[in-house]
Amino acid sequence: MRKFVILFLILLLPSIAYLVLSTGKHNIKPLGYFGPKELSTNGDTVYHSIPAFSFIDQDKIPYGDKDLSNKIYVANFFFTTCPSICPEMQTLMKKVHDQDDFVKLNDFKLVSFTVDPDHDTPEVLKEFSNRVGADSSRWKFLSGNQDAIYKLAYDGYMANASADSTAPGGFLHSDLVFLIDRERHIRGIYEGTSAT
Q1: Closest-CA residue to 35 (of 178, 192, 135)
Q2: Longest CA–CA separation in the chain, Å
Q3: How far apart are CA 33 and CA 9, in angstroms?
Q4: Total-model pTM
Q5: How far is it, in rounded angstroms, from Cα 90 to Cα 121?
Q6: Are 111 and 65 in contact (CB under 8 A)?
Q7: What is the C-alpha to C-alpha distance for residues 131 and 116, in angstroms, rounded to an integer?
Q8: pLDDT in single tens digits along all 196 residues of the chain
Q9: Residues forming a β-bridge with 62
């Protein structure tokens, strides 16, 4: 009888394990694509992608889409003198920056675009970068032509960015954080003032 029970368990346990693993619910959710999409002439879907850009980083070095080629990155819009949502947004970016899983990845970057480039020069961004403890090889703070930044925000990230005398600090900008894939598609949009 004992041999029968052992044989029964040997045959039954793999079957139960297979059923649990193949029919169980998992937490993996595929990421969608954000933004307008079109059909190409051959019927393939062409997803919205971030247009080409080039600005100056906190080390006074040109930095843009070519530097992010074949990389995954998280982007946001902020300004260093922001009295409202920016400190929370940059705290969230810093948490992502410090995640052990991301620290080990050479192809994962963070990019923060200033919406106040007249004030946020590379020197100001360098000081800000040092204050928040950013590793400049992984987290870039970009400044440049104000109109080009606003156009990139609107056309590329589908985000607000503009000077506005009625907004706190004089600038209106999105509180969103964007996850961009290796092909420059927006794959996630998250509330930048929430840690969840």
Answers
A1: 178
A2: 86
A3: 46
A4: 0.82
A5: 18
A6: no
A7: 18
A8: 787 778 777 877 777 777 766 766 666 678 899 999 998 889 899 999 999 999 999 999 999 999 999 999 999 999 999 999 999 999 999 999 998 777 778 899 999 999 999 999 999 999 999 999 999 999 999 999 999 999 999 999 999 999 999 988 999 899 999 999 999 999 999 998 876 5
A9: 56
